[in-house]
Amino acid sequence: MHSSISIIDLKPYNDECKNGLVEDISKACKHLGMFQVINHGVPYDICQTLMVTLQEFFDLPYEERALFFTQDHSKLVKIFNYYFKGDDQRKVSMWSETFSHPWHPIEDFTHHLPNNPPQYREVFSAYAKEIGTLMNKVLRLMSKGLGLEEDTLVKRLEERPNFYSQANYYPPCPEPELTMGLNEHNDITALTILQQFDGVSGLQVKYDGKWIQVDPIPGALVIILADQMQVLSNGIYKSPIHRAVTNKLLPRLSLAMFYAPNDETLIGPIENLINEEYPPIYRSYKYKEYMEEFYRQVGKRRKVKEAFQI
Ligand code: OGA
Ligand code: NI
């Protein structure tokens, strides 16, 4: 099997017959669990304007950004640093700064978002709406790719999923081999749509023990399957291990838009995918149980869904 990341053209989405597209998506979800999409419907200028706006946000003076610094993960709008704990239990910060807040329904949160840069609220809202439409398309294609009704995954993730964004800023790092922008991890949600700043690489996905670089392609977005998708599909779809390395000379920016279940949503292998030959490999759980396990493993190389394996 090839080990580079697929680039999938979503143009045939509106065609009556999109079997080829469903098959490509299904293959990519079963193989790497990560792929890039083009002709995805999110206008290029909206993507570009948001990346420039985020750069302006991270370039604000420290005192202004400091308003959002917190260690309290229950805060809606926050800046924090990821870290891991070494063998001696000392915290080691990642070479990055992370800015996170909810993105849907955006009208409910707009007044909590930064008003500097002044265009932030407007530009972010426009992007969030487009990403909502794209998430829906991708989830429909992914359902069909499992041989299920088109709306299965959306229904399983229920009416009020938890949507939040995470902008990652990686300053240039004089000695990239000594650190990491974001340590290797699985996304904990169901689905992630990631935009990378043009021209600066950093994202890598693990396959067969090797790291594959996911170079930014202007106008493309990266689709990353997350843990809940692996569990819902009973392991048919993969939640890939990935990380971000730093760059010696250039700053790098990425924006992840996450689609997570809400705390009460029951997650477990979808019934139609289970039979005698394919028994469930995970037990069902409420998403909040998964999150409790996630926080229990803070600072470690987490293995969260593994705790629910049968
Ligand atoms: C993430 C992530 C990778 C990147 O935010 O979960 O994996 O390229 N980001 O910044
Ligand atoms: Ni990630």
Automatic annotation (TrEMBL):
Domain Fe2OG dioxygenase: start-end pairs: 160-261
Top-level division of the source organism's lineage: Eukaryota
Keywords: Iron, Metal-binding, Oxidoreductase, Vitamin C
GO molecular function: L-ascorbic acid binding; metal ion binding; oxidoreductase activity
Entry-linked InterPro entries: DIOX_N (IPR026992), IPNS-like_FE2OG_OXY (IPR044861), IPNS-like_sf (IPR027443), Oxoglu/Fe-dep_dioxygenase_dom (IPR005123), Plant_2OG-oxidoreductases (IPR050295)
Pfam families linked to this entry: 2OG-FeII_Oxy, DIOX_N
Keyword set includes Plastid: no
Family named by the database record: Belongs to the iron/ascorbate-dependent oxidoreductase family.
UniProt protein name: Fe2OG dioxygenase domain-containing protein
